[in-house]
Automatic annotation (TrEMBL):
Signal peptide: none annotated. InterPro entries: GMPPB_C, Mannose-1P_guanyltransferase, NTP_transferase_dom, Nucleotide-diphossugar_trans, Trimer_LpxA-like_sf. It holds the Pfam family GMPPB_C. Belongs to the transferase hexapeptide repeat family. This is UTP--glucose-1-phosphate uridylyltransferase. It comes from Caproicibacter fermentans. The keyword Transferase applies. Its EC number is 2.7.7.9. It is an enzyme of class 2 (transferase). One of its GO terms (molecular function) is UTP:glucose-1-phosphate uridylyltransferase activity. Residues 261-337 form the Mannose-1-phosphate guanyltransferase C-terminal domain. Residues 2-230 form the Nucleotidyl transferase domain. CDD domains: NTP_transferase (cd04181).
Amino acid sequence: MKALFLAGGKGTRLRPLTDHLPKPMVPVMGRPLLERSIEALKECGVNKVVFSTGYRADDIEKYFSSSEFGVNIHYVCEDIPLGTGGAIKNCADYFNDTFIIFNSDIVSNIDLNDMVAFHKKKRADVTIAATRVQNPSSYGVIEYDEFGFATTFTEKPKPGEEKSDFINAGVYVFNPKVLDLIPSNRVVSVEKETFPALLQNGYKIAVYRGGTYWIDIGTPEKYMRVHADIFSGLCKIPENNFLTNRIYGLERIQIHDTARVIGPVWFGDDVRIGANVTVGPNVVVGSGFESGRGCVISDSILWNNVSVGSGVSITKSVVTAGCRIGSGIQCANTIYSQESKRHLVI
């Protein structure tokens, strides 16, 4: 089976985390989100993947060409942004059978095997994963009938005017024949244009409501929330369950006898923790981290190759890759970016 990742967006709302990194490559528990998504796809038999890229496309291709990920990967780079529908149409030549489509900023526990089986059982032309949210006015709302087929789509209705609390979760199963209805070589919104057009032309769009966890990491707040949800057990990652193993990777690090680790904590490789340092709770420590003495780090996400001097305090913050934080610096509720030299309140 094949899958398409829509990975061309600039991730503007996630800046400065995306100033020098495409949004699908932002690390979730130390690994790019796109890599984690591919691992999930492999579990349901996907062996060929197409990336529709745009912003910083070379970063994606360089990463995935550097090692073996167990799937065949093809790249289609947009010269100009084509929207979600336009990006799908732009990759049409790769798909001649039922395939899966992902928005690349999604973290969810949707059972893809079950979703594909549901799609086939419903004999649908398209199946859309839907998730229930408290504030649907910020998303594309889906109404459906008693048989589980979509009847209308409303993009970002005004608060109080929502007719459903189920929204488009950004995961689809497509039959390739529906691609004929998407115009070529222009911007197309699959949400605002393609799906309503399919309904008008009598196509069957099934609504799959499986899965108990879903979030898009479109803002720094949501990016931090997904990590908090993983630590709390609300969202699962394959390598560790923090409800039963509070500290992941401890055996791979160098830690001073006087240092303390308070779980939950996720450690990458080649980490060195200095004397009288406290790490945790709720901390991601990326590979290559090194600390001085007497530091306190809690409720924060440190990307790879970060180093901090002595007496540094980091709380409720994100520190991006390669940052060097001098002794005595206090970081609270900030994004610390080496490139931009900015501290932004989260």
